[in-house]
Write the C-alpha cells for this entry.
Amino acid sequence: MRETYSRTASVWQRMTPRERRAVMNYGEKYKAFLDTARTERLAVNEILSRAEAAGFKPLYDQKELKPGDKVYWNQKGKSAILAVIGQDPVHSGMKIVGSHIDAPRLDLKGNPVHEQDGLVYFRTHYYGGIKKYQWPCIPLALVGVIYTKRGKKIEVNIGMDEKDPVFYITDLLIHMAQDQMKKTMAEGVTGEQLQAIIGSHSNRDEKAKDAVMNLIKKEYGVEEEDFTSAELELVPAMKSRDVGFDRSLIAAYGQDDRVCSFANLEGILAAKPGLKTQVALFTDKEEIGSYGNTGMQSSYFVKFVMKLLALQGKGGLLDFYETMENSEMLSGDVNSCMDPMFPEVTEKDNSSLCGYGIALTKYTGARGKAGSNDANSEFMQKVRTIFNEGGVAWQIGELGKVDQGGGGTIAFMMADWGCEVVDCGTAMLSMHSPYDLLSKADAYETFLAYKVFFESK
Ligand code: MN
Ligand code: MN
C-alpha cells in the first residue's frame, strides 16, 4: 500500500496511474457539482436528488428503521442530512461527517434597486468574510428566490448559462486611482460600494430605473416591493476550471466548503453500510456563525437524531446525549495550505501543503486556541489509524502560525453534546475569494477519507 503520511512526497508522487485516472475523473464530477450547486438551496436540491435516486427516503415518513435503511432530512431547503442505518442501534453511536453548503457572496438588500446618473444598481450586503476589493470586475450571477405579492414563488438563476447576461461591480480605473491606491486594502473598496450594475437602457423621457423595473415585471412578474421578502444572492458566474498544464488543480467559486460537501455526498453514496449509522450532514449559515434555523446552532440536528432514536424505541433527551457521547464526527471543513507567495503567515512544519492529502486539524481558534474544539488525542489516534489502514493520504494542518489569525468551524457545537470530533477537510489557496484554488488530489483524498470513516468500526 502507498505511503499515507509524508511531508516530502506529494500525493501525486505516491499515486499509481490508475489512482491518477480516478482523481481526474473525480475532478470532472466535482466541477459539475460546483457549477450546479452554486448556493445552499441549489446544493440541497442536488444532494437530495442524488440521494433519492440512490434510494433515500424522507425520515419523517418512516414507521420503522431497519439496518441498511436510507433516510434524509430536508431543513427548509437550505440544509440536509442523509443517514444510512447501521447494524447496531443508533444509540450506540453514529459516524458523522459534517460539512457546510453556504459560501461567501453578496446578498441583495431589501430595497436593492436604485439609479445613479443613468446606471441602475442592486445594493448588496456581503455574506461571510470577504476581501471586498476582490469582488469588482468579475461576472456575477443572480440566484435565489423571490415571491410576488400574491405569493407566487419565483426561482431566479441568471448568469450561469453562457447565453445569460451577468451583473457587474465597477472599480476605479488606475489612471484616476491615486487617492484610492493610498488607502489600505480593507478600505480601497467599501461594502456600500459593492453595488452591481443591472441596466442602463431606457427610452426617451423614461428613467433608467423604471425601464429596468418594467423589464423585470414583464419577464418575471416581479415588482419592486417583492424584493423586500426575497432571498437573492450575487455569486461569481465563472465556471469551474482546471488549472495548470497538468490540470492538477481546480479554480472555482465556493470550494469552501463544497469540496468537503461533495466528498461527503460521494462518500456516503459509495460507503458500504456499516455497523454504525452513517450520517452525512450538509449545513447552512456556517460562514456567519451557524445562526438561523438552518444553521448548526439551531435544533434541527437534535430533532433528526431524536427522530431516529424514536423509531428505534428511544428518544428522551438523555438518549440523545448518550447517542452523541457515543458518536464520532469529522468536521468536514476546508483549511488553508501554505502559500509559497505568502509564507510569512504560516509555520512551515505544521501547515498543510497543497497536494499532500486531506488535512487533519487538531485545533483551530485564535490567540491561544480560543474558540477551538481541540480534538482529543484518543480520537486523533483512531482517525489516523482509520486513514492509514484505509490507504488515505492525510496530513496535519493549522490555521496560520501562532497569533497570526484563526477561525472556527461547526466542530465545537457538536462537541458540546459530547461527540468526539476533529476538523478534517481539504486544504486550499485563496480561500473566500470569488475563485479559490485547490489540488484535485486533495479533493479526491477527502472523498476517500470520508468513505473509509463511514465504513469504520
Ligand atoms: Mn468553511
Ligand atoms: Mn469559510
